[in-house]
Design brief:
Blueprint lengths: L3 E2 L2 H11 L24 E2 L4 E7 L2 E6 L3 E3 L7 E2 L3 E5 L16 E6 L4 E6 L3 E2 L2 E2 L3 E5 L18 E7 L2 E6 L3 E2 L2 E2 L3 E5 L22 E7 L5 E7 L2 E2 L2 E2 L3 E5 L6 E2 L2 E2 L15 E6 L5 E6 L12 E6 L4 E2 L4 E4 L5 E6 L4 E5 L3 E2 L13 E2 L3 E4 L21 E5 L2 E5 L4 E2 L2 E2 L3 E5 L1 E2 L1
Parallel strand pairs: 24-28
Antiparallel strand pairs: 1-40, 2-5, 3-4, 4-7, 5-6, 8-9, 9-12, 10-11, 13-14, 14-17, 15-16, 18-19, 19-22, 20-21, 22-23, 25-26, 26-27, 27-29, 30-31, 31-34, 32-33, 35-36, 36-39, 37-38
Length: 420
């Protein structure tokens, strides 16, 4: 069937309806997105885009950059670490909150705000070490939210229902001792006393959560990072928790797929996780170094969430020695980003092995088999594509480089949804 691009007005209306609350798991899209990016996204002129959140028809972008410009515009706009633009037009919003350090994570809030985490101590002159909630339209702090993040860094945020989940290297947050993972009241930032998964490392490395995902119904949470136990149970680098209701607990589902280490310099080699739109499975993206086809290094894998106990992956796709940083799941595809050169490459050693297909920087995989789909927009590699976010309008892509679909797009772009 011929692919038809949605009219712009319809896209913006659909976004406003479908993303009024945070889109927390994979966004269901009718087909694989276009391999040609839209022309109107603004350009980030330096640094790296490390986080993207969508609130209504506004895209909030965080990182360690300082300057942006609208598409085709010559005016350079000072936007240090954080800015927002309008979906459908690319117009950069006037709001310019003042942060004294880079942004590491973002999550859409339940009432038009955005949660911002990073290496900052103050926001708009007010003490908010590491975590704050901002009004998207004005850039002002949202009154009442003060999580009082302690020492350490917040590396991941996701909002679900009346909660905000934070992951990183911290040991206290929201007025409570929490190691690497916490659930916070979305209105106040106070830690939920009922949620403490007690992450630990048997080899005494520092606990670190790299990425989080929550199902669209808020019932399940996934976390990846440097830990090997949770709530006293074996959970090497990947856990799933039952997050619904008033008594959250570690899920009985587990996997030992990531128990073996890759290069010893990595305390954890998992970098991204996302649930399928229906919440019945998840996908995990990894770095790790070249260890052949028997380990899970430099790979993306699907895990089905049916049943209890230990689970093997349903499929694994390996890059042959190049890092994957990010993953986003839709009904039609599993998108992965990184600085990979190939997919379908289990025998590669930073080279194209038998059956390898060229997929520089970004790829789409069949969700049922894991094989690379023909889709191949390409992305300049650099450190790599670290952010993939799906919305009804398509796939938002954030990175440290400026070539997407073989055209100039400064560190952010949108590959639009198409009708299948």
């Amino acid at each position: 069937m011929r692919k038809i691009y949605r009219p712009l007005a319809a896209v913006v209306l659909l976004i406003a309806l479908a993303v009024a609350g945070p889109a927390v798991a994979g966004q269901s899209l009718p087909g694989v997105v276009s391999d040609q990016p839209v022309a109107w996204t603004p350009n980030v002129l330096d640094g790296t885009v490390t986080a993207i959140a969508v609130v209504g028809d506004t895209v909030v972008v965080g990182g360690d950059f300082t300057t942006v410009a609208e598409a085709g515009g010559k005016t350079r706009l000072r936007r240090r670490y954080l800015f927002a633009f309008q979906l459908g037009t690319g117009r950069v919003l006037d709001a310019a909150p003042v942060l004294d350090g880079p942004v590491t994570a973002l999550a859409a809030g339940p009432s038009g705000g955005v949660y911002v985490a990073g290496k900052f101590a103050r926001v708009n002159g007010t003490a908010r070490p590491g975590l704050a909630e901002l009004d998207v339209a004005t850039g002002a702090l949202v009154p009442g939210f003060d999580a009082k993040a302690g020492k350490g860094q917040i590396r991941a945020l996701v909002a679900g229902g009346s909660w905000v989940y934070a992951g990183g290297t911290f040991t206290s947050i929201g007025g409570a001792n929490r190691t690497g993972l916490a659930r916070l009241d979305a209105a106040t930032g106070a830690a939920d006393p009922a949620f403490d998964l007690r992450l630990a490392n048997a080899n005494h490395d520092k606990v670190k959560v790299e990425a989080l995902a929550v199902t669209n119904d808020g019932a399940r949470l996934a976390a990846v990072g440097a830990f090997d136990t949770a709530a006293g149970q074996r959970r090497p680098q990947l856990l799933v928790a039952d997050a619904g209701g008033t008594a959250p607990a570690l899920d009985a589902w587990s996997t030992d797929a990531y128990a073996a280490r890759c290069k010893t310099l990595y305390d954890s080699y998992l970098r991204g996780v996302d649930f399928a739109p229906d919440g019945t499975w998840l996908a995990v993206a990894a770095t790790g170094g070249m260890s052949g086809a028997t380990r899970m290094c430099d790979s993306v894998a699907r895990f089905d969430l049916d049943g209890r106990g230990n689970h093997a992956p349903a499929w694994v796709n390996r890059t042959g020695g190049n890092t994957l940083w990010s993953v986003a799941v839709t009904g039609a595809a599993v998108y992965v980003g990184g600085h990979q050169q190939w997919m379908d490459n289990p025998a590669g050693h930073k080279s194209a092995g038998p059956g390898a297909v060229s997929r520089p920087g970004i790829a789409a995989l069949d969700p049922h088999t894991g094989a690379a789909l023909p889709w191949n927009p390409t992305h300049s590699r650099g450190v790599g594509v670290g952010v993939l976010v799906t919305v009804p309008a398509g796939l938002l892509v954030g990175s440290d480089t400026d070539q997407l679909g073989r055209t100039y797009h400064g560190r952010i772009g949108l590959l639009p949804a198409v009708d299948g």
